[in-house]
Target: DUF3105 domain-containing protein
Amino acid sequence: MGSAKKSSNTARQARIAEMRRAEEARERRNRILTIAVSTVIVAGLVVGGVVLVRSQSGDSDDATASDDKSTGKFVAGQDGVQTWEGNLSRNHVAKKVTYPVDPPVGGDHNQVWMNCDGDVYTKPLNKENAVHSLEHGAVWVTYTDKAPKADVQKLAAKVEKTPYSLMSPNSAQKDPIMLTAWGHQRTVTGADDPNVDKFFEKFVQGEQTPEPGAACTNGLSE
Model:
């Protein structure tokens, strides 16, 4: 009887020992799995961080300048209006763009337009925002410091009463006063030049407009 009881206890202890060994084995496997998973996660975070930094670095480099993807050239008309013959790209970009002409007549541009509801700006504009205004059918009046002050004031008065127009200084242009619409541009001699009215009549929300009726408000105001 005592022998049977002793045998039973021995068997039970053996089962307990086996269960402990199995539990210890499971714990070792779990520790190894946890370490492995953690290693993979850490490695992934490191790689992801490197990719992100490189990506951000690339974006920063791209933000300095980008050539416009437009192709073509200006063709002068008998009416004095230069017309762009070719393709004017219309991609939205978040960087500065190097345009083939100044002021630009179209091309890649910022996704936010300059307000062009008769807005007169006293400082040079980001061309990427102004080009978006051209896409909406605006006429953009620009001038240098060589433009007579009286002409600048008269042109400002005209712009202020003309929806889908805007005006700003631009020291980089070749002539004192220039008028620009999407794909079209001309020089005028002054505010009283009859070609000013002709250009406005033809190109404010004219047939050249890529997005007729698009807003000229709720964009940038300066």
